[in-house]
Amino acid sequence: MPRKCGNCTNNAVLKRPKTGDALCKDCFYWAFEEEIHQTIVDAGLFSPGDTVAIGASGGKDSTVLAHTMKVLNDRHDYGLKLILLSVDEGITGYRDDSLETVKRNQQQYDLPLTIVSYEELYGWTMDAIVEQIGLKNNCTFCGVFRRQALDRGAMKLGATKIVTGHNADDIAETVIMNVLRGDIARLRRCTAITTGADGYLPRCKPFKYAYEKEIVMYAYFKQLDYFSTECIYSPNAYRGYARTYIKDLEKIRPSAIIDIIHSGESLSVKKDVKMPQQTVCSVCKFVSSNEVCKACVLLEGLNKGRPRLGIGKTHKERRKWEEDLAEEASRLSLHNTAVSGSSDCGQGCARDEVNGCGSVFVGADEDDVNGDGRRNGCCGGTGSGGCGTTQRENRMPAQKVITARTTMRNLLDF
């Protein structure tokens, strides 16, 4: 005998992963949407008149988010202006296809759409970045650039809020990742439903308590148009291991996802632990926790042929780069000192007190190639009287003396 819906007399068609309730489709739709509404109201995410940029990738989360935001905005009269905002990372065979889905969503939901691209903002595509960095750490570039691209696109649109489709599974995964990395700063803020509230552009997560399985079920039963292919560069991502761990926990204990989120919310940091303060990047003027933001550091590395610059906490690649620059600057300084000499006879050579010429020009031949009794490049000076004739064809072009400090400052200048 078919099981009845727990809220009405219709037959149940699903069992909610989050609560275990047996529901019919209509009751599930209502329960899912009203839980999102309650999350929005309890957290005070929006105010009437807000212009909200919906991060739209074409995937299940962002598609359900766009659909739900439109439904709730109409049903509960939020008074919001909704805009779809997409980021084109430049991943051939993935993002170009998913953007076609977003364009269809634009027509289906009757919402304006704006697309910003990595190539437009940074001069690089992810395809080009992967050619430089390989398949390890490429997600670091994409994540950092995409977050800033959303901010830039939202500012261009005059948005007052950004909403993203991060769900409960995503947040639980992030908690686990930050615990494993020992990243106290991110661990403290990763469970926040709104980030950047004290800045110029808050970012909200209405799906904070929504299970990924329920989002998929909602999209399936509603027959929403979404793109389901995984990014071709993500199989080796660190997050994938955290995701597998979370899924295994969920099989044993379905409430594990929410439990991890609540644990993250309850964590506190000792008062004497120094936490990074949010500031503005001195280069791009966007939000950063350092003087120069991660996006600018990574972009600098790409542009200078050091793509691993800035990856990791200790920036080993940056230290190696600085050491190489210091060594090169020191070599240039010694070379120019040798060229300029300690005592100039007027023709550019360094003379001694007896012969009038104590050294040859850099690169001069040790042999008497001219048959004049002196080495090629020697000035032929006559004691204290100064120089005779200088074989200037063997002299290196004059170079400006560059100290190691000046070289480092110029090459490291942001």
UniProtKB/TrEMBL annotation:
Its EC number is 2.7.7.-. GO terms for biological process: protein urmylation; tRNA wobble position uridine thiolation. One of its GO terms (molecular function) is nucleotidyltransferase activity. Pathway: tRNA modification; 5-methoxycarbonylmethyl-2-thiouridine-tRNA biosynthesis. Residues 52-244 form the tRNA(Ile)-lysidine/2-thiocytidine synthase N-terminal domain. The keyword Transferase applies. It is found in: Cytoplasm. Pfam families: ATP_bind_3 (PF01171), zn-ribbon_14 (PF16503). Residues 281-309 form the Cytoplasmic tRNA 2-thiolation protein 1 C-terminal domain. GO terms for cellular component: cytosolic tRNA wobble base thiouridylase complex; mitochondrion. PROSITE patterns: UPF0021 (PS01263). Its main location: cytoplasm. Keywords: Cytoplasm, RNA-binding, Transferase, tRNA processing, tRNA-binding. Belongs to the TtcA family. CTU1/NCS6/ATPBD3 subfamily. HAMAP family: CTU1. Plays a central role in 2-thiolation of mcm(5)S(2)U at tRNA wobble positions of tRNA(Lys), tRNA(Glu) and tRNA(Gln). Directly binds tRNAs and probably acts by catalyzing adenylation of tRNAs, an intermediate required for 2-thiolation. It is unclear whether it acts as a sulfurtransferase that transfers sulfur from thiocarboxylated URM1 onto the uridine of tRNAs at wobble position. This is Cytoplasmic tRNA 2-thiolation protein 1. It comes from Elysia crispata (lettuce slug).
